[in-house]
C-alpha cells in the first residue's frame, strides 16, 4: 500500500493542500483580525460579515464553492476567464485543487478570525502604547510585540487548522469531486472513504486510516516539540 | 533635557465631553511637575496628550522649541512609565530595556553600555536575563523605570507608576524616583491621585479639577495658601476643616448653628473659613486669646500612632470638625471641647465661588 504510486500521489496532494489551506487561512484571518481590531466605527457589522461563514456546514460550503466555480455560471470562473484562465473544475487537476483550497480556506477563515481577534484584544493596551513610544514603525511593532504575544493563539490555531485540512475538509472535497474521483485530487481521508466504501477494500482502507492517525499524531508531537518551545504564554 | 509648554490645550471626546478645558502650563527644564486631582479630572488625559497617545483637540504642546501636536510618540523624545508597568512579557529584562534603543538603530555596544548602566543604578543587574513574569511588583517597577532611563529622553512621563505597589514599597520607590530624577536632572511630569505622593515629589504641583487647573505652585505654597476650597480639601491629610460662617454683629457665627466665635476680619456677610486639623488647639476654657474659638463635643478619638485624630461636632449638629492632637491626649466621647485657631492659620474662601480671599 505504501509503495503504491496512487497512495503517494494522494499523500503528496494532502501535504500541499494542508500547507496552503493552513497558511492562507491563518494568514488572511490574521490580516483581517488586525484590521478589524483597529476599526472603530461599524466594527460589529464588519465582524458579522466575516463570521457568518462559520455557521455554514462544510458540504454547504462545498456546494457554494461549486457554484462559484461552476463551468458556466460561476463568477470566479468568469473572473479568471477575463485574465485568460479557462478554469475546468473536475477536469483539470490543478484547477480542481485550486477550487478546493480556496473553498477550504474561505470556510476556515472565520474561526481563525474570531480567535485572532480575541487574541489581539487580550493584548494589554498599555503594552501596545509602550511599544508605540519605543518603536516608530507599525510593521516592525507588529512583528516584534503583537505577533509574539499572539503566538499562543497562533499555535493553537495551527494545530486546529492542520487537523481541519486533514479531516474536516471531507465535505468540501466530496461536493467538488462529485463522487467522480477519477483523476481528481483527493486527500488521504477522502481516499480512506473511497477505497473502503466505493472500492469495497475495507482492509486497505483500515490500514490507511491507521497510517493517517499515526501521521497526525507525529505531526502534533513535532509541533509541540519544535514550535511550542518558542511560544510565550502570559 | 527640555522644557515642555502647554498652551490652552483642550481635549473633547465624542464632540461634547470636554475632559481637558484649556490648560496652560510652562514646565522648566529639569523640573519635576506633579499633576494631581481626583479621578476624571483630566490629569491622565493631559499626560497622554504629551506622550502622543491621545489626540489634542485644540491648543499646542511644545517639547523644547518644537510643537509636537502631530509628531509620532516615538519621535517626541519622551519616555513613559505606565501604571501597570507595560513591560513586554515575551522579552527578557535586558531586551525590555534595549528594545527602544534597537529600534532607533543604536550601536550594540552603546545599547549594552546603557542597559548595564541603568541596571546598575536600579539594582536590577541580577535579573537581566529573566522574563517579567518572574519578577515581583517592585522589580517590575524598576524595570519600567529602567526602560525610561536608558532612552535618555528629554522628558519622563509617569502615569501613576506607584499605585500598584503595596504601601511600604510605594514609599521606598517614591524616594527612589525623587533621588533618580534629581541625579539625572530630566524634566518630569508625574500624574497621581495621591496627594501625599504629589506633595513629596513635586517641585511644582498642578492641582486639576474637572479639566481645569485649580492651582499651580510649590507644594508648600499650595498647602499654606490653597487657592480654593477644592484645593484646601484635596491637599493635606487629614483634610482641612471647612466651615460656613456668617456675620453676627461685629463678629462671626456658624451659618447653621452655634459654637463658633471670632472677629469678622474680612467684613463680609458670609464666607467659608478653613482651618487645618493641626492648627486647632485644645484650650482649657472658652475665649482665651485672639482668633477663632469653637465649642464642640467629642465623637470619636482615632489614634494612628504618632498622633491622634479627634472627630467632634457642634452642639446642634452641622459640620463635623477634625482636630489633630498628641497621641497621649485622652478624650472621652461627648466630652466638651474648647478649640482655638490662631488668626494666621485661618483661611478664608468666598461662599459662592470657593475662591480664596486674602
From TrEMBL, chain A:
Gene3D superfamilies: MetI-like. The chain crosses the membrane at residues 12-34, 46-69, 89-106, 142-167, 207-227. CDD domains: TM_PBP2. Keywords: Cell inner membrane, Cell membrane, Membrane, Transmembrane, Transmembrane helix, Transport. The keyword Glycosyltransferase does not apply. Residues 11-223 form the ABC transmembrane type-1 domain. One of its GO terms (cellular component) is plasma membrane. Its main location: membrane. The keyword Glycoprotein does not apply. GO terms for biological process: transmembrane transport. It is found in: Cell inner membrane; Cell membrane. It is a multi-pass membrane protein. The complex is composed of two ATP-binding proteins (UgpC), two transmembrane proteins (UgpA and UgpE) and a solute-binding protein (UgpB). Belongs to the binding-protein-dependent transport system permease family. Part of the ABC transporter complex UgpBAEC involved in sn-glycerol-3-phosphate (G3P) import. Probably responsible for the translocation of the substrate across the membrane. This is sn-glycerol-3-phosphate transport system permease protein UgpA. It comes from Roseibium aggregatum (strain ATCC 25650 / DSM 13394 / JCM 20685 / NBRC 16684 / NCIMB 2208 / IAM 12614 / B1).
Automatic annotation (TrEMBL), chain B:
GO terms for molecular function: ABC-type transporter activity; ATP binding; ATP hydrolysis activity. GO terms for cellular component: ATP-binding cassette (ABC) transporter complex, substrate-binding subunit-containing. InterPro entries: AAA+_ATPase, ABC_transporter-like_ATP-bd, ABC_transporter-like_CS, ABC_transpr_MalK-like, ABC_transpr_MalK/UgpC-like, Mo/tungstate-bd_C_term_dom, NA-bd_OB-fold, P-loop_NTPase. It holds the Pfam family ABC_tran. One of its GO terms (biological process) is carbohydrate transport. PROSITE patterns: ABC_TRANSPORTER_1 (PS00211), ABC_TRANSPORTER_2 (PS50893). It is found in: Cell inner membrane. Keywords: ATP-binding, Cell inner membrane, Cell membrane, Membrane, Nucleotide-binding, Sugar transport, Translocase, Transport. It is a peripheral membrane protein. Its main location: membrane. Residues 4-235 form the ABC transporter domain. Coiled coil: none annotated. Belongs to the ABC transporter superfamily. This is Disease resistance protein:ATP/GTP-binding site motif A (P-loop):ABC transporter:AAA ATPase. It comes from Roseibium aggregatum (strain ATCC 25650 / DSM 13394 / JCM 20685 / NBRC 16684 / NCIMB 2208 / IAM 12614 / B1) (Stappia aggregata).
Amino acid at each position: 500500500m505504501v509503495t503504491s504510486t496512487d497512495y503517494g500521489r494522494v499523500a503528496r496532494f494532502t501535504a500541499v493542500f494542508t500547507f496552503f489551506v493552513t497558511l492562507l487561512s491563518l494568514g488572511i484571518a490574521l490580516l483581517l483580525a488586525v484590521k478589524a481590531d483597529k476599526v472603530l466605527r461599524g466594527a460589529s457589522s464588519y465582524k458579522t460579515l466575516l463570521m457568518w461563514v462559520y455557521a455554514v456546514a462544510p458540504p454547504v460550503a462545498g456546494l457554494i464553492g461549486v457554484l462559484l466555480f461552476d463551468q458556466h455560471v460561476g463568477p470566479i470562473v468568469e473572473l479568471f476567464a477575463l485574465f485568460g484562465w479557462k478554469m475546468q473544475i473536475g477536469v483539470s487537476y490543478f484547477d480542481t485543487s485550486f477550487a478546493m483550497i480556496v473553498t477550504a480556506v474561505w470556510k476556515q477563515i472565520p474561526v481563525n478570525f474570531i480567535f485572532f481577534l480575541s487574541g489581539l484584544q487580550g493584548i494589554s493596551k498599555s503594552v501596545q502604547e509602550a511599544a508605540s513610544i519605543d518603536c516608530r514603525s507599525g510593521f516592525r511593532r507588529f512583528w516584534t510585540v503583537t505577533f509574539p504575544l499572539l503566538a499562543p493563539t497562533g499555535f493553537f490555531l495551527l494545530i486546529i487548522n492542520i487537523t481541519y485540512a486533514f479531516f474536516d475538509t471531507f465535505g468540501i472535497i466530496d461536493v467538488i469531486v462529485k463522487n467522480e474521483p477519477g483523476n481528481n485530487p483527493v486527500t488521504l481521508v477522502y481516499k480512506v472513504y473511497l477505497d473502503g466504501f466505493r472500492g469495497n477494500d475495507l482492509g486497505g482502507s483500515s490500514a490507511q486510516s491507521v497510517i493517517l492517525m499515526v501521521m497526525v499524531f507525529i505531526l502534533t508531537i513535532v509541533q509541540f516539540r519544535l514550535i511550542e518551545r518558542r511560544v510565550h504564554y502570559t | 533635557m527640555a522644557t515642555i509648554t502647554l498652551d490652552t490645550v483642550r481635549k473633547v471626546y465624542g464632540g461634547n465631553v470636554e475632559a481637558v478645558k484649556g490648560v496652560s502650563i510652562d514646565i522648566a527644564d529639569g523640573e519635576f511637575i506633579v499633576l494631581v486631582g481626583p479621578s476624571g479630572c483630566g490629569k491622565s488625559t493631559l499626560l497622554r496628550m504629551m506622550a502622543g497617545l491621545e489626540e489634542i483637540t485644540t491648543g499646542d504642546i511644545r517639547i523644547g522649541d518644537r510643537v509636537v501636536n502631530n509628531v509620532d510618540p516615538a519621535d517626541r523624545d519622551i519616555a513613559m512609565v505606565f501604571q501597570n508597568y507595560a513591560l513586554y512579557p515575551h522579552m527578557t529584562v535586558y531586551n525590555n530595556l534595549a528594545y527602544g534603543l534597537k529600534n532607533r538603530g543604536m550601536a550594540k555596544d552603546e545599547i549594552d553600555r546603557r542597559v548595564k548602566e541603568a541596571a546598575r543604578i536600579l539594582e536590577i543587574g541580577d535579573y537581566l536575563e529573566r522574563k517579567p513574569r518572574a519578577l515581583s511588583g517592585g522589580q517590575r517597577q524598576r524595570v519600567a523605570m529602567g526602560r525610561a532611563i536608558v532612552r535618555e529622553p528629554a522628558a519622563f512621563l509617569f502615569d501613576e507608576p506607584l499605585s500598584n505597589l503595596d504601601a511600604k514599597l510605594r514609599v521606598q520607590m517614591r524616594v527612589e524616583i525623587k533621588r533618580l530624577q534629581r541625579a539625572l536632572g530630566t524634566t518630569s511630569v508625574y500624574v497621581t491621585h495621591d496627594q501625599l505622593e504629589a506633595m513629596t515629589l513635586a517641585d511644582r504641583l498642578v492641582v486639576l479639577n474637572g479639566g481645569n487647573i485649580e492651582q499651580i505652585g510649590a507644594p508648600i505654597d499650595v498647602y499654606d495658601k490653597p487657592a480654593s476650597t477644592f484645593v484646601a480639601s484635596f491637599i493635606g491629610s487629614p483634610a482641612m476643616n471647612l466651615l460656613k460662617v456668617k456675620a453676627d454683629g461685629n463678629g462671626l457665627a456658624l451659618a447653621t448653628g452655634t459654637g463658633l466665635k471670632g472677629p469678622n476680619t474680612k467684613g463680609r456677610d458670609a464666607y467659608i473659613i478653613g482651618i487645618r486639623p493641626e492648627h486647632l488647639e485644645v484650650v482649657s476654657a472658652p475665649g482665651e486669646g485672639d482668633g477663632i474659638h469653637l465649642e464642640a463635643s467629642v465623637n470619636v478619638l482615632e489614634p494612628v500612632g504618632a498622633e491622634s485624630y479627634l472627630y467632634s461636632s457642634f452642639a446642634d449638629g452641622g459640620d463635623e470638625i477634625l482636630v489633630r492632637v498628641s497621641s497621649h491626649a485622652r478624650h472621652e466621647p461627648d466630652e466638651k471641647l474648647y478649640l482655638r485657631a490662631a488668626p494666621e492659620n485661618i483661611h478664608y474662601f468666598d461662599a459662592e465661588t470657593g475662591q480664596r480671599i486674602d
